[in-house]
Structure formats: structure tokens, C-alpha cells
Amino acid sequence: MDGDGASSTGATPSEEMNGNLMDFLDEPFPDVSTYEDFHTIDWLREKSRDTDRHRKITTKSKESYWELIKSLLDAWSGWVVMLLIGMLTGTLAGVIDLAVDWMTDLKEGVCLSAFYYSHEQCCWTSNETTFDDRDKCPQWQKWAELMTGHSEGAGAYVLNYFLYVLWALLFSFLAVSLVRVFAPYACGSGIPEIKTILSGFIIRGYLGKWTLLIKTVTLVLAVSSGLSLGKEGPLVHVACCCGNLFCSLFSKYSKNEGKRREVLSAAAAAGVSVAFGAPIGGVLFSLEEVSYYFPLKTLWRSFFAALVAAFTLRAINPFGNSRLVLFYVEYHTPWYMAELVPFILLGVFGGLWGTLFIRGNIAWCRRRKTTLLGKYPVLEVIVITGITAVLAFPNPYTRRSTSELISELFNDCGALESSQLCDYVNNPNMSRPVDDIPDRPAGPGVYSALWQLALALIFKIVITIFTFGMKIPSGLFIPSMAVGAIAGRIVGIAVEQMAYHHHDWIIFKNWCRPGADCVTPGLYAMVGAAACLGGVTRMTVSLVVIMFELTGGLEYIVPLMAAAVTSKWVADAFGKEGIYESHIQLNGYPYLDVRDEFTHRTLATDVMRPRRSEPPLAVLTQDSTTVEDVETLIKDTDYNGFPVVVSRESERLIGFVQRRELTVAIKTARQKQDGVVSSSVVYFTEDNPQVAEACDPQPLKLRRILNLSPFTVTDHTPMETVVDIFRKLGLRQCLVTRSG
Fold first, then answer.
1. In sequence order, what are the residues at sequence separation of 6 or more whose Cβ sits closer than 8 angstroms to the Cβ of residue 728?
2. Where are the alpha helices (DSSP H) in 552-603?
3. Beta-carbon count within 10 A of 355 CB
4. CB 404 within 8 A of CB 517
5. pLDDT, tens digit (0-9, with 9 covering 90-100), for 433-474
6. By the number of CB atoms within 10 A of the CB, which of 233, 307, 516, 518 ranks highest?
7. Where are the transmembrane segments (predicted)?
8. What does the alpha-carbon distance between residue 104 and residue 565 come to, in Å, rounded to a whole number?
């Protein structure tokens, strides 16, 4: 305190000191609200801070028109954020779809009329195409034809093969290099991390601008390189990055981590909505699979975001058929009760594949973490891409992109299909109605297609285990669906041929007359895809909704439900975790799953830290700790906060103070408030302490940052209750007390 000030105002030193204290305390501490990286947020605190903010705005809005307008804008900001997220996500998804189409075709050939056209677009503009050879047109040339002039023969095949592998390697090398150099967080699916972030964990930079940019670019490269991965999971990550980007524009969301989590839940819904063209499925996916805290308001907002995103994607129309996804199908034939048996068998297959995949993939990822393999991510990606490309090219079913494969497997054989799977022997004297073609015996094309599909199935099963979790963006939905669709189509053709050749058997007698169309193999592919996806991710409701939004088949909800539930039961019999939960555990993220049961019969005393044998708990006293003591305590420990007690003897609890707020407060006080030195007393009481003489160092009052109502349980609370409290309220810490 300076002497002049005291003499000129004529106030006593203690009075002026109190005035100073009050002034300092009214200014808000800078940056107190934020958390350190890799820490958990305190949901209760965030919620109460938002309520305070809301109350302030409401009281202010009664004062003037300007404040009223500001409060209205604040209320609308949530919907504005959703609109922006939906529009950006839809646009990015459309761009990704178009780019993937073009680059996948680039591995095989190029369009001469305009090099930026994909194969399909190239042949649309051509006048020379016929209906039978709709894939062949003079404007589209394979690489060998372009370079040597020969389109057939061994030399051309080898050249095409070589260039296919070369392009694949180039794409994947670019992808992994970009991820490594610019945004290490852009690798993988992103859903495990997003689940962790939504449960209240903080990973700085995981949803940043760089991650968004690099993830979008490398996702196109990774999918185009022909690796066994999809773009669905990463699209959820991309959407959440968009959500985070727009949160930073509104202080309501950027300053409150709890509110930001609500926006990210809705963004995840928008991501699934554009990935599958399934807005309702997206909302349910966010609710069932990724979100931790999902209030009703978020449900409406995510519905709106998903709607806007799907609408934007529909406006871009990336596939040119007014559909949001590549594999849209419509079936016309009903299904029969007896078919539930193969459907349930497909469900069992899906559950077994899910278990196999999770075990194999987690073992491989653990190996990657612990051995030399993890030190060479680029080499690993290059090797896997090389193996994939070399094995994929000879088989026409694995050469094309996975979503095209699924699309062909889902398709029903109409009179106009030219694919090998539809090479049935036609009855010459049969009249040809267009839509309802009776069951026919399979021709040679179908049998060779079945062999190729069986090989493709084995290849996909093995290669996906090694692909998922590499250092490039990789989704899991499409490969799992491909495995299921291949298995389903094989089963479907088998059932169809049985029904044709043995239509006098008792099971076929009731529903399969000769000359009728009774079995749709495409439907089996769809059910198989749902079963395998369910086995890996353990979704049920959202999965069925996504599948029927995807395929437009409302009457097939029962088969899909049967398969999804069976696959979940079978997979749960071998282990409760889905692939995302397993990856969360593998990476060691702090995630309290709401679905886990807690079975140990322990009490809070048995679990609390410190144990009875350890050194005592680090505490602050309400009016006898000096600034120096506090600073040494902060330096020597790494706790997130400290309980404040009456005195060391009585240890009655007064409140709890966060470590970060304590450091910020002391730092600020040393800069702004004169007279705060190492020997100043820090006090947390209501009334000011008596200053004995003027020469005593000035005390520092920190009541403002003290949480007076920390969450406490008694020492005899059963542990399951404690775990439940942590889960439901999203606590950061909980204090154990005995009689206060």
C-alpha cells in the first residue's frame, strides 16, 4: 500500500485494503472456465453456469429493446448453428462422393472428352452407347488402350493391372503422408474418440480446422485407393469438426463445454444422415451409439441438422439418380415366414463375424502399439494397400469400389440387368412381364459369380481386420456391410435354386408355385449386411432404421429386426463390447459406459484415494494457509483440485477449489493487487480476517472460486451408487466424508 494514497483519502489502512479486495474480486478471472487438455469436464458446473448466463440475459432483456433483441438472437443461435452444420456437412459429403467416384475410376482409365468425368458420367454424354453395353463408350478408355492402342490381350491386362496397383499405392501414400505431417488426429474412424469427447473428455485439436481439412482430403484418397474401408465413420468425425467450427462463432457454445457437447451430438446425427441418406437413422444413431447426455432439446436440434444435411446433399445430387446413396433398391415381392430361418442364420453369421473381427482387430492393434510395427505407419499402409490391390484386381467383385459392390449385391435381377449375377437360363416360350420374373434355373454366369463372391468374401474378411485402425481415415460400416451382403447373396441364390428345383417340398409347397417369383436374393444380401453391421457395432434400433431408409423397403422391417437382434445376441454371448468400446479401452480413454453393470460389493472407503495407509489428503485450510504453501502444494501434487477444511485438526469440509482456478487467481492477484507476497494468508471465509498491524502482508481473499457445494458421499456408500452418481451427473470428483 502506498502511503500517499492512505493520507490523501484519509482512510484507515484496513478499510482501504478491504475496498481493494472487493474491486479485485468483482473483475472476472480470465480464462477460469477452460479445462486442461486430456481432462474431464464437470457437467454439473457447466450446467449451472449456463443457467446463470440464461438468468442474466432474461433479467437484462426487460431493461431495453436492444437487450430484448440480443436475448432473442441468443435463443435462436442454437438453430442457426444447426443450419450451418447441416449445410456444410451436406456440401462436404457431396464433394467427397463426387471425388471418390472420379478417383476410383481413374485407377482403371480416363475420360477423353473431359478428364474430370467419372466412367458413368463420361458415358452419359456419349451418343454411341447401346443399352446392352452401357459401360462401353468410345470416350472412356482404359489406360492400356490409351497407351498401346490394344484393349484386349495379355499385355493390355498386365499393363492395366500394373497401373491399377500403382494408382492405389500413390493414393494411399498421399493420404498417410498428409495425415502424418498435418493432422495426426485425422486417422481412423473417429467414432471412438467422439464417443469419449461426448462423454465429457477433452482432446484439444481433435475437432480442429486442420483435422477437418485433412480428414476430408485424405478420406477421398483412402477410399479411392481401393482399401477395404468406408467413408461413413469418418463422415461423423467430419460433421463433428464442422459443429466445433461453428461453435466457436457463438460465445454461448464456445465458452461452455457442456453446451458444446449438445451441438456435437446433433452434428454426429447430421454425419450419419449424409453418409447413408438416412436422417432419422442418424438421429437414432447419435442417441443410441455416440451420445452420452442427450436432452430432448438436442433430439429436435439433431433432427433439424440431419434434415438440412440430407436436403443439401440431395441438392448436390452426387449420384445423378436423385437418391442420397449409391445402393438404393426397391423390391416388390413379399417375404414368407419360412424365410425367417435363413434370415436368422444370417444373423448368427453376422454375430460370429462381429466377434471374430473385434478380437482379430484388437489383437492386431495391440500388436501395432507394442511392437516395431507402430514405428512405421507409412510402410504399413503401403504394404497393406499393395496386398489389397494385387489381390483385388483379378476378381471383378473386389476390383470395383465397395459401395458399388454392395449396390450390385442388393439389386434385384430385372429383365434389363446385365450383371453376371443375373445370368439365368431363360425359358424361351415364357411370356416376359417386366417386373415379375419367375424363378429360373441358374446359368453358368451365376455359378462363376458364386465362386468369385466366395473368394471375395474370404478376402474381405481377412483384409478388413488388418485395415481398420491404420493411420488413415477408415470407416467400418461399408466393409462390414460388404461382408454381410456377399454372404447374404450367396445364401439367397442357394435358397432360390432350392425352391426352383424342389418346389414340391413341404416348406416350399405353401408359398412357391412353379412359374412364380418367390425368392429375392437381393433381400438376403440386405439382411446379411444389417446382421454383420450389427455384430460389429452392436447397434439395433438405429441399424434397422438406417437399413430401411437406405433401401426404401418398409415391409422388410421384420426380417431386418430378426437378423439385427440375433446378431447382437450371438455377438454379446462372446463379449459385451462393440468395436468402438473396444477401441476406447485399447486407447485407454476414460469412458464410463452407461450400459456396463457394476458388480463389486465394495464401499466408498475401499476405493477412495488416499488409502488409510497412504500419506493424508492434500487439503487447504480456510484461513491459515499462506500463498507460498498453496504454491508448493500445487507444484508437488498433480490433483485437479483441493478440498478446503476449517482447520487441520477438525478437517470439517467447507468446499472444494479447482487447481486451475487457484493458479490463475494467485497469478492474477500477484499482478494486479499490491501487497500480495509469498507470506500473505489465503482465506476462504465470508468475513475479512483481522489485520493486526499495518506491517502484516496483505491477505488474499479467494472465496469467489470456492465451490461451496461439492458433491459428497459418506464413507459407507456402496460403490455401485457412487459409480451411478458419476455416470448420471457427469461428475469430475466426489469427496468422501464422515460426519462432515
1. none
2. 557-574, 579-587
3. 19
4. no
5. 444 566 677 778 888 889 999 999 999 999 999 999 899 999
6. 233
7. 76-100, 161-183, 203-223, 263-287, 299-316, 336-358, 378-397, 449-469, 476-495, 523-548
8. 35
pTM, to two decimals: 0.86
Please identify which residue in the block is written with the cell numbers 452444420.
85
Contact 491, 340 (CB under 8 A): no
Name the phi and psi angles at 109, rounded to 5: -175, -170
Average pLDDT rounded to a whole number, residues 142-158: 84
Residues in the chain: 740
- Residues contacting residue 420 through CB under 8 Å, at least 6 positions apart: 396, 445, 446, 448, 449
Q: Is the pLDDT of residue 206 over 90?
A: yes
SS3 sequence of 286-350:
HHHHHCCCCCHHHHHHHHHHHHHHHHHHHHHCCCCCCCCCCCCCCCCCCCCHHHHHHHHHHHHHH
Residue 675, φ and ψ in degrees, nearest 5:
85, 0
82 - beta bridge partners?
none
Cα 71 to Cα 77: distance, rounded to the nearest angstrom: 10
Strands, sheet with 653-658, edge to edge from the N-terminal-most edge strand: 620-621, 641-645, 653-658, 706-707
Identify the residue whose cell numbers are 501414400.
173
Q: How far apart (Å, rounded) are the C-alpha atoms in residues 314 and 161? A: 36
DSSP per-residue codes, 483-526: HHHHHHHHHHHHHHHHHHHTTTSHHHHTT--TTS----HHHHHH
Q: Is 200 left (phi over 0), alpha (psi -120 to 50) or beta?
A: left
96 near 231, Cβ under 8 Å? yes
* Buried/exposed 661-690: b ≥16 CB within 10 Å, e otherwise: bbebbbebbeeebeebeeebbbbbeeeeee
CB atoms within 10 A of CB 534: 31
Cis amide linkage into residue 559, ω under 30° from 0: no
Q: How far apart are CA 140 and CA 124, in angstroms?
A: 11
pLDDT at 713: 85
Instruction: Compute the distance between CA of residue 406 and CA of residue 650 in angstroms, rounded to an integer.
Output: 70
Written as one letter, the residue type at 722 is V
User: Please, are residues 717 and 695 in contact by the beta-carbon 8 Å criterion?
Assistant: no
Min mean pLDDT across 112-121, 284-293, 341-350 is at 112-121
The whole-number pLDDT of residue 576 equals 84
Residues 6+ apart with CB under 8 A from 161: 393, 394
Rounded distance, CA 615 to CA 426, Å? 85
C-beta of residue 497 within 8 angstroms of C-beta of residue 512: no
Q: Are 240 and 264 in contact (CB under 8 A)?
A: yes
Tens of pLDDT, residues 50-68: 999 999 999 998 888 999 9
- C-alpha span between 157 and 395 (Å, rounded): 13
pLDDT interval class at 25 (50, 70, 90): very low
* Residue 389, Cβ density class (10 Å: 0-12 exposed, 13-18 middle, ≥19 buried): buried
Which residues pair with residue 142 across a beta bridge? 109
C-alpha cell at 547: 437399413
The one-letter amino acid at 304? F
pLDDT of residue 436: 52
Residues 6+ apart with CB under 8 A from 180: 377, 378, 471
Contact between 266 and 294 (Cβ < 8 Å) = no
Q: Does an H or E element contain 634, and which?
A: helix 627-636
**At 375, phi and psi to the nearest 5?**
-80, -15
Q: Is the Cα dihedral 615, 621, 625, 631 positive or negative?
A: positive
DSSP assigned state of 655: E
The residue-averaged pLDDT of 97-118 equals 87
Res. 82: pLDDT tops 70: yes
> Mean pLDDT across the chain, nearest whole number?
83
